[in-house]
Amino acid sequence: MEELQPLFPQLNLSRPIIIAGPCSVESEEQVLKTARELAHNGIKIFRGGIWKPRTSPGGFEGIGEIGLPWLQKVKEETGMLVSTEVANRAHVNLALDYGVDMIWIGARTSANPFAMQEIADALKERGAEIPVLVKNPVNPDLELWIGAMKRIYNAGIKRIGAIHRGFSTYGKQLYRNPPQWRIPIELKRRFPDLPIFCDPSHITGKRELISSVSQQALDMNFDGLIIESHCSPDSAWSDKNQQVSPEVLNIIINSLVLRDECSSTENLALLRQQIDRINEELMELLARRMRVTCEIGRYKKEHHMPVVQPNRYNNLMDQLVRNGEELGMSEEFIRSILATIHEESVRQQLEIVNGNK
Ligand code: PEP
Ligand code: MN
Question: How far is the CA of 49 from the centre of ligand 2 (A)?
Answer without folding.
Answer: 8
